[in-house]
Design a protein that fits this description.
alpha+beta; Thrombin, subunit H; Pdz3 Domain; six-stranded antiparallel beta barrel; 21 strands; 24% helix; disordered N terminus
């Protein structure tokens, strides 16, 4: 079958053209082996996209409850390293086909008055995780579209606009004990590993009744307390959909499409865990509207200074020329002595504001002008 969604097809073409330009694993393999792994991995992605778009719902969705998979040690290891041969690829593909059938019933389309996006049901009583720029403000009516054809009324609850995280709840009147909601349990985003495979699911281009949620596979590139970066392909409409582990647990929520295929941003699921009570009671914080300030850097390990450990591709810092290893000394003439002080300084800014960073690079101090970016606005 041919994938009908033109945006997915265009992205798949871009992957085939650009895949050989970027390979994030830290490895000493030869260039030829790197290229073969990259192409093989993306062939698997295209196969999974096609299978997911043309998949049928679970055999008895009305009997579905928690949707996840048990991992054998061998399968778990496969999703932590590049595939070594065609047998590995086949094993990964078979597992992803099972995972797709297990989790897609719980991946929903969301429609509000001023827009649409994706989400994922995480409990039998109808809590739905999504992005803050999808849910917007608290106590607003929404419609949730399930892959099995159900259209259920819902209400937006809390949102943390600093990190683009939002929560909805399907109305209790919509719950049917004879037809329980499918749901996917949340996992733990604390111990994710650089280079491990992960799965992005959503409704690119918006929910379509004749199409199951699209499933794409990629790799973990960066992780911070409030951000995950992967090379899973995302397009408009995917925002709010789940990022999943190989076991089918929610580890993140899609937030922002990066400048290229190698830099898409997700909200770590532990952001929801740590402030669950605030989300559930409908608190909205981090600003009056979605899109908190975003610099696009991660902290260096084992440094007492404000040293930059990673620069997120396509982020504000990357566009301004900040480099890994730079040590921030001042932020708009305010002395910066630690990375936490840098975080606080950025938090006090507005997206679009231009600031001056004084950084130490190779024993020299330089000034860099940066326009502060924002979460969840593209």
């Amino acid at each position: 079958m041919i994938v009908q969604d033109s945006q997915i097809r265009d992205k798949a073409t871009a992957i085939n053209q650009e895949a050989c330009l970027y390979f994030p694993f830290e490895t000493d393999l030869s260039r030829r082996r790197l290229l073969s792994y990259t192409v093989a991995g993306w062939l698997l992605v295209v196969l999974i996209i096609v299978n997911a778009v043309n998949a049928t719902p679970a055999e008895s969705p009305e009997k579905s409850t928690e949707n996840s998979l048990q991992l054998s040690p061998a399968i778990e290891e496969l999703f932590l390293v590049p595939p070594r041969n065609s047998d590995d690829l086949r094993a990964m593909q078979e597992h992803l086909q099972k995972l797709s059938q297990a989790v897609t019933p719980a991946v929903v389309g969301i429609r509000l008055k001023n827009g649409m996006g994706s989400g994922v049901i995480i409990s039998p009583d109808g809590y739905v995780l999504s992005a803050g720029h999808v849910t917007g403000q608290s106590n607003k009516p929404a419609t949730v579209f399930l892959a099995d054809g159900r259209k259920l009324s819902a209400t937006t609850l809390g949102a943390n606009h600093r990190v683009d995280a939002g929560l909805l709840k399907i109305s209790s009147e919509e719950l049917d004990s004879d037809r329980p909601l499918p749901f996917v349990s949340i996992g733990d985003s604390e111990n994710l590993k650089h280079g491990q495979w992960c799965i992005a699911v959503g409704h690119p281009g918006g929910f379509q009744e004749d199409r199951q949620p699209a499933v794409r596979m990629g790799r973990m590139l960066l992780k911070g307390n409030n951000i995950i970066v992967t090379d899973c392909t995302l397009v408009g409409g995917d925002s709010g959909g789940p990022l999943l582990s190989a076991a089918g647990k929610v580890i993140g929520i899609h937030s922002r499409i990066g400048e290229g295929i190698e830099a898409n941003l997700h909200i770590p699921v532990n952001v929801f865990r740590q402030d669950w009570d605030r989300f559930a009671r409908g608190d909205v914080w981090g600003g009056p509207s979605p899109g908190g300030p975003f610099l696009g850097v991660l902290e260096a390990e084992n440094s007492e200074e404000a040293e930059i450990g990673r620069v997120i591709p396509g982020g504000a810092a990357a566009l301004a020329g900040v480099r890994e290893g730079d040590v921030v000394l001042k932020f708009n003439d305010q002395p910066i002595n630690s990375f936490s002080e840098l975080v606080s300084a950025v938090a006090g800014c507005d997206p679009g504001q231009t600031v001056q960073l004084e950084v130490r690079r190779n024993a020299k101090n330089i000034i860099i002008a940066i326009e502060i970016g924002s979460f969840g606005l593209n």
